[in-house]
Amino acid sequence: QVQVVESGGGLVQAGGSLRLSCAASGNIFSIARTEWHRQVPGKERELVASQTKRGVLFYATSVRGRFTISRDDSRNTAFLDMSNLKIEDAGVYYCYLVRVTTDVGWKDYWGQGTQVTVSS
């Protein structure tokens, strides 16, 4: 049984920074890819950043240069460091763990989501 818990969202002024965390627990052997998605009301969930186990990175154009994705495999935890936040960065951020391998096989998991609010 794998549990995924996100933390780190909150209210921040434009120009500020936040760090989101996504911690997976259970008998985990590996996580192939970690992703962060953002959802705002009335829009589809969009991919913001991703990182493979081998370190291949992807950033959406809107966040490139301001957001940094990272992972600590020893703690099965993914991070999203967000700096120089803009009003349009607000939304609910979800981590998505792709191909989480355990002793009984593999499965993908979503975090519960964490709200990021950016004020002017």
What is the element layout, followed by pairings?
Blueprint: E1 3-7, E2 10-13, E3 18-25, E4 28-39, E5 46-52, E6 57-59, E7 67-72, E8 77-82, E9 91-102, E10 105-110, E11 114-119
Parallel strand pairs: 2-11
Antiparallel strand pairs: 1-3, 3-8, 4-5, 4-9, 5-6, 7-8, 9-10, 9-11
The biggest beta sheet, please? 7 strands, mixed
- Structural Rg: 14 Å
Query: How many E strands?
Result: 11
- Span between termini: 41 Å
The assigned structural class equals: mainly beta
N to C succession of SSEs: EEEEEEEEEEE
Provide mean pLDDT, rounded: 97
The tally of helices reads 0
Query: Percent of residues in helical segments?
Result: under 10%
Which percent range describes the beta-strand content? Answer: over 45%
Task: Give the overall shape, derived from the CA principal axes.
Answer: elongated
Task: Considering the chains and any ligands shown, give keywords for the structure.
single chain; 120 residues; mainly beta; 7-stranded mixed beta sheet; 4-stranded antiparallel beta sheet; 0% helix; 62% strand
Explain what you see.
The protein has no helices and eleven strands. With 120 residues, it is an all-beta fold. Strands 2, 4, 5, 6, 9, 10 and 11 form a seven-stranded mixed beta sheet that branches. The chain has a four-stranded antiparallel beta sheet with strand order 1-3-8-7, with no helix packed on it. A hairpin with a 4-residue loop joins strand 7 and strand 8. The chain is elongated and about 45 Å long. The mean pLDDT is 97.
